[in-house]
Design brief:
The protein folds into four domains: 3-100 and 102-138, Up-down Bundle (Glutathione S-transferase Yfyf (Class Pi), Chain A, domain 2), CATH 1.20.1050; 176-239, no CATH class; 255-346 and 541-610, Neurolysin, domain 3 (Orthogonal Bundle); 354-538 and 614-674, Neurolysin, domain 3. 56% of the residues lie in helices and 8% in strands. The protein is built from 26 helices and nine strands. It has a five-stranded mixed β-sheet. The protein is globular, with a radius of gyration of 25 Å.
Amino acid sequence: MNALLLESPFPDFDSISAEQVVPAIEAILKTNRAELASIKEGAEGADLVETFQALERLSARLNDAWAPIEHLNSVMSHDTLRQAYNRCLPLLSAYETELGQDRDLLEIYEAIAAQQTALQLTPAESKAVANALRDFRLSGVALSDANRARYGELKQQLSELTSLFSEHILDATDAWEKVILDEAELDGLPETAIALAKQAAEAKGYEGYLLDLSSPSYSSVMTHATDRGLRQAVYEAFTTRASELGPHAGQFDNTDLIQKILKGRAELANLLGFEQFSELSLATKMAENPAAVMSFLLDLSHHSKAVAEQDFDDLARFGMQTLGLSSIQPWDVAFCADRLKRHRYDLSDEDLRPYFPAQKVIDGLFEIVQRIFGVEITRVTDMSVWHPDVTTYLISRQGEPLARFYFDLYARTKKRGGAWMADCRCRRYDPKRGLTLPVAFLTCNFPPPVNDQPALLRHDDVVTLFHEFGHGLHHMLTQVDCAAVSGINGVAWDAVELPSQFLENWCWDPDALNLISGQVETGEPLPLALLDKMQQARNFQSGMQMVRQLEFALFDFRLHNEFDGNPATLQAILDEVRAAVSVIPISKTNRFQNGFSHIFGSVMGYAAGYYSYKWAEVLSADAFSKFKEDGIFNRQTGERFLTTVLEQGGARDALELFVEFRGRAPTVTALLEQEGILR
């Protein structure tokens, strides 16, 4: 039996193989098409509520099979699985287009919408129907036959192009490595990083030490290596990935793919009656129009640029006067920043790492979540996993199961970089099958344990873990039973980062830090002296960090708002944005856009939506200010956030939910104060 076709609360990863992927998806699509035809044939006079539930069932069947496939392709990539995954993309794209352009199906949803009061639809179901009607329009249901066909072709092309873009980044990242025979060349690197490099070399049968472009290795070199030539070599290898330059020039080049993706998106938007892709992107977001987004980003830039310039002036002065550098090059920035932080605050990230053993952080995270939201998290062993590093957990409240999740926290080869949360199962109620509880994938790329030493996290890693777990809580604590708007489904993209960024705040609170820290040998929590230094350094270079994110957001939005088909436009926009907001030097060989998977690694994703990080950060800072007023572990306030935001999922508009929680509309003041930009 094909494991992907089994109905189960969570996937049986022990039984899933790459050979099952294509047959499973083909079988599900065939079954879904047959059932859809039957639904449409009997639509006249049918119970519309039952019809709606049957349509939800089709989506659930496909999602439950595809979610583990997509996840495995990200975390355990290999040629056979990749080939199977890519064979499925055009099949899925065609099916999605069929549904979105099915006028008979549209009529069913219109009938449901017209009779929603008589049908006694729940608010969540009504929102799901409204979203569906919107999505029909955005899928080209009203287009001519020729334009509908072209729409389908474009969606399929974009699916394949963006998948190839991501593959190129993964392959380019895995392709580069550097063997170091003399440990002296690694001067400055922490003992843990050196041990990890030695462990990596041994795993591949090399002598000495192995550096690569994985996050733990790259960040260690850029932050700590005293050998400037080594920093430059690693920097250039990383920033030229998947481009026409660098150690693997042209081998995994994403340059042409970017142009094809931009042209495809522009044509897609034009077909649907939008002037630019940015307008199409905003059709499902909180922001009203492109002008509102640009105004928001430029306002943040106005407040931040002077602070960022001062941050960099301080860094450059220190680098030249204290470290003896004749100039500050891009590969010097992280190194100088670490040394300046040590000088100014007597603090380095490495001073903190021994206080954040991974398991202690995880246990503390669970305790914090229990205190705020009243839920219990326990380890379980009845779920199969795809790698020995993966652990599994159950979330419950007062003995009632709410959700399950997987933790895959450590970097390894053939695993996509970065950190993310993805849904494996979403909460839904089916009268025929009962209640399905949500299941989440939570993935990071932290340094793995070395030898007998537990994994030790940087404080930045701790923040990342809390961020992704915030996403997870949004998905898992929902009480919405309609799959289309439960958890993160149906949430406006520029609000989806609210719970994630919101939870980050507990990484800085003294009481919370006592729960998530414990010296690796003694178990002692973070000393008061280190805590004070951390608090003082919290907003170190906050201006530089702010404008860095604004650079990415402005580049993304302007690119999708102004793209004219000319290949030179991309670089021109990037240069203009950097001239306006960036303060650090940029290497002429930097091809960061070729690795910008947020906006080029999926059909939609964060395209014309990277601003969402800052947009949602305004919401999260303002929401957390309520906890600062009431107490960070105030259960009443936690319950209010739980019921007004987390449990509601996408069943109600994000701004409406925020106002219900906060009692007013959001303002940028809390964010600017939190970042130390308003002083």
